[in-house]
Amino acid sequence: MARRVGEADGLHASAAQAAGAALNRNPIALVLACHRVVGADGSMTGFGGGLERKTWLLRHEGALLI
Predict the structure, then answer these.
(1) What is the pLDDT of residues 35-47, one digit of tens each?
(2) Is 34 a catalytic residue?
(3) What is the largest CA-CA distance in the chain?
(4) Cβ–Cβ under 8 Å, residues 44 and 38
(5) Using alpha carbons only, how large is the chain's radius of gyration in Å?
(6) pLDDT tens digits, residue range 24-35?
(7) Which residues, 6 or more positions from 65, have their beta carbon under 8 angstroms from its beta carbon?
(8) What's the Cα-to-Cα distance from 55 to each of 18, 21, 58, rounded to whole Å?
């Protein structure tokens, strides 16, 4: 979200603060399951259940097609 705000406004330095402020004002909680988080380059990153389980979960959800 911060990256999108920064790119849209051209304000890279304050993008994280803008994202935090927007989320703070949002009355609806945004939840992202930790296994859905991947590296900026699309690579698999750490997961407490192991990368094999993370890969399985993403494939099972249809979020990973490889």
Answers:
(1) 787 888 878 888 8
(2) yes
(3) 38
(4) yes
(5) 15
(6) 787 777 676 777
(7) 59
(8) 32, 32, 5
Candidate list 34, 37, 51, 63, residue with the active-site label: 34
Entry pTM: 0.49
Which residues have C-beta within 8 Å of that of residue 2, sequence separation ≥ 6?
A: 15, 16, 18, 19
> What average pLDDT score do residues 4-26 get?
66
Amino acid at 32: L
Q: Are 58 and 33 in contact (CB under 8 A)?
A: no
Every domain of the chain and the residues it spans: 1-27, 32-66
Nearest in space to 51 (alpha carbons), one of 65, 62, 38? 38
Asked if residues 47 and 35 have their Cβ atoms less than 8 Å apart, the reply is: yes
Structure tokens at 53: 């389980």
